[in-house]
What does this fold into?
Amino acid sequence: METQRPASGAMVYVSSIAGLRYIGKPWVAYGAAKAAVMQFAKTTAVVYAVRGVRLNTTVPIGQMGDAWDVANAVLFLVSDEARYITGQKIVVGGGITSSTGRT
It folds into this structure.
């Protein structure tokens, strides 16, 4: 991507809400790994922004959506319509990260 003229490209990393919040299971290593993916994307996005390469992270949850929900977010992020978006987490989770878990 960097060697293209003009330099351009988009990468999307898929992570999990476990990198953002406790998910009700004692999966410490899993949560830490997903948080690391998010921080990697954010840091790398800053490094490569001047080279025309964008990186973002989508955060799917398996219960509230399906693969098409995540795929549509990824398609948007790699499209020209998202050309000014980089270093972001796009939470594809039906609002679960905003929830307290109480109804």
